[in-house]
């Protein structure tokens, strides 16, 4: 057992030691509307370093790769998660998630989820002694998906998503404010091999992709700025070391890239200013997806920096207890998110409990630093034999 776990854990810890100080490089961080969509809403994926596109199917596959539902073991499942946000500063900002899936038959499954992000109570006042106006800005999404096995070992899925962002603050006098809304779609695929016998263990290969949040820009009013959705390409691969009937180790690697144009100095005056922003807004969301692969001002080297990568490992004992760890890395000039995560899972009959904890390894401290994420899953119905 140790010969598998020790190299994995050591590798995750030392990944950050090679990070270089890029403070002299120009910062061109890609920003989007509704960034809460990219926050890991479930504790299992969070414990693996925000990896989910290529891991085995669970109730929370809707966010990462809905095609996995066609390989779910239980016929139906309900998952609930709670993630505190900025927990070291406030106690009323959080991300909640509710997911349901139903594997209709041997080949197909449907799922639906609701994610809600609350920014807590905010007091609005024009003078210090004025009676404050209390507002509760929030954002949420609702989506449904359908997955279908196109062969014995490969499935694809499509998801439709409604997104609502209510972040506009009403005026003290007029009280006028409206939420912005839009829709988006996902296209995903998942491959899971048969169990293969090797010399000292059995194994299983996994691979997946998900092009998520393809949709029109978000706009709060007719004269306001248009904001790109966090359209994202996720690619991943993994392998399960099935050591014996009690012990299993899964290792996964995942790459992500925002399919959003890179901010740049269009007029060549040395600064990205309001005029550049106006030209940037003229890029349509569909055009921007293709531009995102070759529009970085510093060329291919900068395009590579727009990819994030994550490596995670999950150990299961007797399908009852799980220990997880993961490392996530983003370029210093593209956001500098770097963190190590730990997680655990417990299964009792039809109930799964998952926990995770995050440690920042970057000078830019994560809003989720020191946050304990919690997830609860209820599985019910018949079970399928996938192995």
Describe the protein in words.
The protein is mainly beta. The chain has a single domain, classed as monomeric porin ompg (Porin, Beta Barrel). Helix content is 11%, strand content 44%. It is built from six helices and 19 strands. The chain has helices spanning 2-14, 43-47, 61-64, 274-281, 285-291, 300-305; strands spanning 74-84, 94-102, 108-118, 122-124, 133-135, 138-149, 154-166, 180-192, 196-197, 202-214, 218-219, 226-227, 232-242, 247-258, 307-317, 321-329, 338-348, 351-360, 372-383. It has a 14-stranded antiparallel beta barrel. A two-stranded antiparallel sheet has the order 4-5. The two termini are 22 Å apart. The model is unreliable at 1-24 (pLDDT under 50).
Summarize this entry quickly.
This protein has six helices and 19 strands.
Order of helices and strands: HHHEEEEEEEEEEEEEEHHHEEEEE
Specify the number of helices.
6
* Structural classification: mainly beta
End-to-end span in angstroms? Answer: 22 Å
What's the CATH class, please?
Mainly Beta
From the 3D structure, determine the CATH topology.
Porin
Mass-distribution shape = globular
Known CATH architecture: Beta Barrel
Strand content: 35-45%
**Biggest β-sheet strands, sense, barrel:** 14 strands, antiparallel, barrel
Helix content: 10-25%
Query: Would you identify the regions where 5 or more consecutive residues have pLDDT less than 50?
Result: 1-24
Question: Which sequence of strands runs across the widest sheet?
Answer: 1-2-3-6-7-8-10-13-14-15-16-17-18-19
Q: What's the β-strand tally?
A: 19
The whole-angstrom Rg is 22 Å
